[in-house]
Amino acid sequence: MADDSDSWVALYVCLILALTLIATRLFLRRLRHQSFSRGDYWCMAAAVFILTRLVANHFLLVYGSTRTLTQMERTALMRGPEDELSKKIAGSKLVLCTRTLLVCVLWSAKMAVLDLLASLIVRLPFELRLLYSFWAVLFATFIASIVTTFSSCAPIRLHWQIDPDPGNCVIGSAWIYTYEFSNIATDALLMALSFTLVLSVRIPKMQKFRILSLFGVGALLIAISVVRILEGRISRTQAGHTLWASLEVFFATLVAVIPTIYALVRNKRKDTGYTYDENEVTIRGRGDRTQSAVMAEGDNDKYTARIWTELEDGQFREDNTSASKILVHEEWEIERSGPNT
Q: Ranges for the Rhodopsin domain (predicted)?
């Protein structure tokens, strides 16, 4: 087993904490008697990828890989026991597995964040164009990151070739540049969208500051990505790759779950149904879409009090996942419910 305490500690501490955060989000969701949202399912997918990566990375640290070998070590390995050679080849193949799982974790977390933001922009005039644009960007960057995982060395067998030395392609510089720049760009876009939404509504300054702080955690993830680009592009040691990748997983999970955990902790009620009363109104938008919502009396702001279904304490909500009853744009016609509604 490799004697690399930093890698082992980072692997297990960061990934177990990430799994704990996801479990906490799901537990609180059920505790509040709310159905799972799409964001919750993306977090579940991320948890599966994290757990699988934990197992794969464990064996990678045990076996090692060809990217850490000097030419002298390669020659000795070719002349040594067959089982040591097999382990090194298996470890090198696991590198591709862990890289793929890392990308899957990060992009699943991004989809969870986008699902939360989608619930806030779902009734904006440009909602579909905005959402489609984000989906397209996330899909394109995900595919690019996966493709470069396997295409860094051509043919692919060079990833686990022992002798002769396949060269620097085993470091995965092309993959690191592609997925990290994609990671930075998509995180920056999601942060910009979240900050724009928060700053556009009238809520108490301290609450606004808290919500901005929750989404601002993404800045740490961007900083880690920058450091990994600088550290990992020429690194032939497993320690650096495992350490920074584990930190990325943890902070990506933190960004994906902490706003929802915040909302669920603040939500003291266990609402299981939507409350209809004399304050009920019908909102008609483009395409004759109608929906019911409880309007805050005297609220003439751009959005109603229901904009923060995920980030308010939810007195009048059906659950935290009801995107169809969240955002009301000021240009919509608002009519009192009548017998013909």
A: 25-266
